Request: fold
Amino acid sequence: MDNSTSGKDSWNNLAERLSASLHLAAEPVGIAFTHDQPFGVTNFAGPMSEKSEDGRQGRVPASCVFWMHGSVDTFTTEKQDHGNCSVGSFTHGLTKLEESAGNSDVEALLESGWIDGDSVMSLPSIKGSPSYITYAPLRNTPNEITPDVVLLRINGRQLMILSDAFSDLKIVGKPQCHILAMAKEENIPAASVGCALSRVRTGMQPEEMTCALPAGRLEDLVIQVEKAVSVVNTVAKYAAREARKFA
Reply:
């Protein structure tokens, strides 16, 4: 992973600046996709679920649930840990579409009209078939981990700022998890308004959304956020002064 930002102090500094600028309620999460298990990082401790009739099982309902744990804990996961959600397993580069096309969760989504076959075929995914996906609060990133993606949980005002800050920001919808592939493989910031699957499984609040940032660009992206926040605050103060005329 060729990354212009490295070292625990650098990740800590950037995490603090992001959190302070945006007033984030949850810690930014660093996510790394690797072929080797990071030294000294323990596996996710949750038990494996029972197999469904089509053979699906995992340690959480879907890959996006690991995002929530990753804002407070550092751990690594393997392919089988993500296996309960066919869509997430594909977008995270852990399975091929043809492996899960007949799974009952995919069939349920297609039958409901929530997504169609063409949309599924066009979903981006992580390249390289990673063996391990490691998560950590960005400010506590171990030296053994170089994140590929930084995941933010944001609200509407924060998305407004990110939209001002990043000229190449892409805002997408379902499924929420494919923003990781967009950030890693296309090297662009990608935000999602969320999806019904992920909101139920993660317990995300109704006002919450997510944004994935390419970690190799993080230093420049944080500078852009800070500039956008300064402008937004200036305009907000002006609007507040104007509003006093109508008090």
